[in-house]
Request: fold
Amino acid sequence: MDQFEVVVSKAEALTPRIREFVLARESGAPMPGWAAGAHIDVHLPDVGRRSYSLIETGSPRFAAEHPTAYRIAVLLESKSKGGSSFMHGLKAGDRLTISPPANNFPLDAYI
Reply:
């Protein structure tokens, strides 16, 4: 599964420059699991691919094994090349294409 479609189920300003987004499948079906440090790529029209870190909240909805939604936060960059500006314009109900979570720097368990 290289990419799949999600709907923005929540878009909320946390600060004047940071917006939180909750992304879910329209059907409510589980999405691929992830581990701490993972990110998703959001495929933006006319802008390209942008990576955003997944945020864990402790809620079963965002559980890393079988999440039904992903949560990200986006900082509006003053010198944005279009990605953060596009993301800050999103509202609930908008659709996006994303890639499954990837983790370029997984945590090792040390005992």
